[in-house]
Amino acid sequence: MTVNGVGVAFSVNGVAHRLEVGPGETLLHTLRERLRLTGTKEGCVEGECGACTVLVDDKPVDSCIFITAALEGRRVRTVEGLSGDGALGPLQQAFIDYGSTQCGFCTPGFLMTLTALLEENPSPSPSEVRQALDGNICRCTGYRQIIEAVASGIENGGRP
Prior knowledge:
- This protein folds into two domains: 6-81, Ubiquitin-like (UB roll) (Roll), CATH 3.10.20; 90-155, DNA polymerase, domain 1, CATH 1.10.150.120.
- Helices cover 31% and strands 16% of the residues.
- The protein is built from five helices and five strands; from the N terminus they run E-E-H-E-E-E-H-H-H-H.
- A hairpin with a 2-residue loop joins strand 3 (53-56) and strand 4.
- The N and C termini lie far apart (42 Å).
């Protein structure tokens, strides 16, 4: 039990949780340290790099600055929730097929941001993809392969 904590009920990747959380506990800490979902990465811890991006009620948020106590009744989706039955999700596979990952550190954040974009707009233009990725930083790929991975699904008649 957390001293001066608050009970919060929310779901992560479709699994219900009820946790006692401290007033300043971040969603990133809750995911990685308490729920052992380590796919979400810790980068800048200032909401600037996007490595920690997850979806809360289908919207991208920086989990390093999102306070867990604000999750009451909400839905969280992490990179672990993109695949089913142990298989990679289509966007994850497109990232591999197009060489969109190099060191891989930023990849979970990119995948979550792009998942939200594609769910809202299944056929984004390259400029819409770039705009959606404005809050995600990658020092390895140069973004070209990431945009090509998204476009691959559009050219094939649907989401990657």
